[in-house]
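The instructor's notes for this session suggest beginning with a concrete chain rather than abstract definitions. Hand out the sequence below and ask the class to guess, before any prediction is shown, which regions might be ordered.
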Amino acid sequence: MVTIRSLVAAFALIGVVIANLLSGLPAASAIDCTTVTALVSACSSFVMYGLPDPIPGSPCCVAMTSLNNVADSDDNRRVVCQCMMDLIATYSSNATAIATLPGFCGVSLGFTIDPNTDCE
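After discussion, reveal the predicted structure:
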């Protein structure tokens, strides 16, 4: 049985992982798909099963906000865009769920997550 304590511990661990990922990024440095994939992986339950819905403050939405924060320049936004396009191509059966993540979390990445999006 899942207890509140184990859920809180899991959320805290996810927060630490995300913070560690982001702390290793120099402010003006280009990001890569490993970082994008790691952040999106916080939303894996929603992407795979539709549950739990990401809501602001959830680990998934914290990750989407972090993704938005690292997409802080045109170059970084293009990288994030291309990585997201790669993810929806790889997980095409879950493309709609991936595409809805920023919106559910109240985040705008500055591009539409769609297989036809031109990231340039």
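Then share the key points. The helical segments are 4-23, 33-40, 44-49, 59-70, 74-90, 95-104. Residues 4-104 form one domain.
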